[in-house]
Specification:
- By secondary structure, the protein is of the alpha/beta class.
- The protein has 3 domains: 107 residues, Glutaredoxin (3-Layer(aba) Sandwich), CATH 3.40.30.10; 80 residues, Alpha Horseshoe (Serine Threonine Protein Phosphatase 5, Tetratricopeptide repeat), CATH 1.25.40.10; 87 residues, Serine Threonine Protein Phosphatase 5, Tetratricopeptide repeat (Alpha Horseshoe), CATH 1.25.40.
- It contains 15 helices and 5 strands.
- It has a 5-stranded mixed sheet with strand order 1-3-2-4-5, with helices on both faces.
- A hairpin with a 2-residue loop joins strand 4 and strand 5.
- The longest helix is centred in the C-terminal third of the chain and has 17 residues.
- The radius of gyration is 24 Å and the shape is elongated.
- The N and C termini lie far apart (60 Å).
Length: 289
């Protein structure tokens, strides 16, 4: 069965309503004269093709199928409807960025009857939050076998490998990715995090720097260098602790450098990271005390 097809209103019940009971169907209402349609349709096709058969795109020319357009109250084009289990569950009008289409499509796939992936992902995420990284990784490995191109699953597995300091395994995974994976925003953040790590620092932190900070606890330049060294060695908690000490001493030091570095790593690590969860609470309490 083709992932992308042109249909008419006589085929709508069978090709959209019935098919969506087993496979989600995204319906693109367009017309040849519509400029925004020419922008949107290629983006829809790209996202659908990247899902490897998990969703179908049905395209309907409204000029030739005015009855179904009227029934669905299509007032402007392009209009997109998402059908799952025989019912529309989402819609939007006008050209949209690929990222918004991706969100809608993933929501539809997750809502498909019988799809057990969302529950397993939730279990894996909870194990990660609980710092049970081996358990979380095992679940993500199981999920990769079920949906190998799902960026959310790939990102979860990569983050587990980084937490377990299996950097070579994470880098090996990146070497196997095609452009559709590496262009994903979350995957790109993990790549940046991995590239910023200097694993050799893990056991060879500059002891002179540590001793200098102990001797000069108010020297924020020294403490900031120490924080960067910890973060580079993927000793995230210690790095965050040093940055929080700087923020507590002087939130505005060096144009709020400590806060900026914290927020940068919060973004790279993701909000489910246990170190991020703890550091965000501490930062918030300092900001609003």
């Amino acid at each position: 069965m083709s992932n992308i097809k042109d249909i008419n209103q006589d085929q709508f019940i069978q090709e959209v309503v019935e098919v969506s009971k087993t496979t989600p169907v995204i319906v693109d209402f367009w017309a040849p004269w519509c400029g925004p349609c020419k922008q949107l349709t290629p983006a829809l096709e790209k996202v659908v093709n990247n899902k490897n058969g998990k969703i179908i795109l049905a395209k309907i020319n409204v000029d030739e199928n005015q009855e179904i357009a009227s029934q669905l109250n299509i007032q402007s084009i392009p209009t997109v409807y998402g059908f799952v289990d025989g019912k529309p569950i989402d819609a939007f009008q006008g050209a949209q960025p690929e990222s918004k289409i991706e969100i809608m499509v993933d929501k539809m796939i997750d809502a498909t009857p019988g799809n057990e992936i969302p529950k397993l992902v939730a279990d894996a995420e909870q194990s990660y939050k609980d710092q049970k990284f081996e358990e979380s990784m095992s679940l993500y490995e199981q999920l990769i076998g079920m949906d190998s191109a799902n960026p959310k699953i790939i990102a979860g597995l990569l983050r587990c490998l980084i937490q377990l300091k299996r950097f070579d395994d994470a880098k090996e995974m990146f070497e196997s990715f095609d452009d559709s994976i590496t262009e994903n925003e979350e995957i790109s953040k993990i790549r940046k995090l991995l590239d910023s790590s200097n694993v050799k620092n893990d056991h060879f932190l500059n002891e002179n720097l540590i001793n200098e900070v102990i001797a000069k606890p108010q020297d924020k330049d020294l403490r900031y260098k120490l924080a960067e060294t910890y973060l580079s060695a993927n000793d995230i908690k210690k790095g965050f602790d040093e940055l929080l000490k700087i923020f507590e001493q002087d939130p505005n030091w060096n144009e709020s450098a400590a806060k900026k570095k914290l927020l940068e790593f919060f973004d790279l690590l993701g909000l489910n990271d246990p170190n991020v969860i703890e550091a965000r609470k501490k930062l918030s309490s300092m900001m609003f005390k």
